[in-house]
Each structure stands twice: as structure tokens, then as C-alpha cells.
Model the fold of this input.
Amino acid sequence: MRSAARPCPSDRNAMPTSARRATALLAALAFTAPAHATDCPGRADLATGVVLERSAPASRATFRIAGAGIDEHRQALIAGLPGPTVRNRYAHGLAIAGQHRAQGSTTFSYSADLAPLDRLDEIGSFSTGVSVALDGAEISTGNLHLEFRGRGEIVLGECSYAVWQVHRALLLCDAAPSLSDLLYAPALGLVLREVRRGDDGAAIDTIAYTAIHLAGDE
Done:
């Protein structure tokens, strides 16, 4: 059970000890024997589109460069057929900028330049203030904190990617912390696996992609 809402958090790492142990397990999973292929998508392919797929639950997410960010169109697959689509926008692969749903559009604005996230493996951690708005009206403020935890490798079909193990904590006023362990591929600029955790470090949801290809190669 998630904890009750709380006052505005300070800019700190909110990762409990139990979550640190879970991160170590995620790190072990990242070190999978690599596969090799010469036509695996890279960051440059985001210009025309990169597709990530998962099987449980079945869904397909297409990522494309859009201006200074990345757009994601995620579509559920029901009995193999296209289902509902949701749209997300990222200011950086590690920092969401917008979530667009039938209920409304949520946007995230950051007070700091996100460029240092490209060197998170060198600087170790990164924090910034964040403002959250629903349909243009601010509803909360707080902090985003990301911490580099190590390196690994992940296999998607015939492709393998070096990944960073990153802990992400979104701490908003009057809300329970949003905590995630991520496997981020710098060569793609995308998160390939996310484990969302409760305050006690227990996993509550996992997004784990299992295949990758260029848009149009379905």
C-alpha cells in the first residue's frame, strides 16, 4: 500500500534500503549474454522512428524526435490488433515532459538544464525542481532526482545495448514519492526497462521491452 500524501519534499534521494537491494537485483538482470546484429536501431534512427515492443501485456511504443524532445505513441495490442493509444513526450529520455490521456494533458517543466543527464554516469546524480500542470493549470511542484547506479547490458531480440542503471525519484508536494529503477540505453536515448516501486521498495509495476526495430519494419 502506498503511503498517504505528504508535504513538499526536500531535494534528496528518496531511495529506501530495501529499494537499494532491489536495484542490485535489477543490475544482475541487466548483465545478460549479448546478442549481436549490425542493423540494430540507434539514436539517429529516432529521426524516422524506433519501435519497442513487449509481450505481457502486449503493446508497441513508437519513439520519434520532435523538436528538442522525443515523442512516444504507445499502443496496446488486443488479440494482435491495435487498441487504445496514449502519447508521452520526453524532454530527455530520463525526464518526461508530457502525458496526454483522454482525461487531460499533464506537463512537466524543469527548472534546471537537462543537458547534464547525458553525463549522468560521470556526475553520479542530478536534481532539478519541477512544476506539474494539468491542462495548463499548475497542480503541484517538487523535485526530480536521478542517481547513476552502475552499468549493464540488455538484449532485445537480436540486438544488445549497453545500459545505465538509474534510480529516479519524483518528489511532489502532497503526493507519495514516485520511485523507479531504470535501465537506460545512451546509444538510443531511451529507457528499455522500468520497475516502479512503492515506498518500501517493493515492485508494483514493470515495463520491460523484449524487441526493437525501425518504424515501418513491422
Summary: The chain is about 10% helix and 55% strand. The radius of gyration is 17 Å. Residues 1-5, 15-37 have pLDDT under 50 and may be disordered.
